[in-house]
Amino acid sequence: MRIPAIPPGELSEEQKPLYDDMSDEMGGYFSGFIKKRKDGALLGPWAPALQYPSFGKPWWDNIKAIAENPKLPRLTREVAILATGAHFKAGYELYSHTAIGESIHLDSDKIATIAAGQRPNDLTREEGIAYSVATSLASGGRLPEATWIMAVDEFGEDGAAELIFLIAGYHQLSAILNGFDVGIPSEETLGGL
Question: Which domain of life is it from (predicted)?
Answer without folding.
Answer: Bacteria
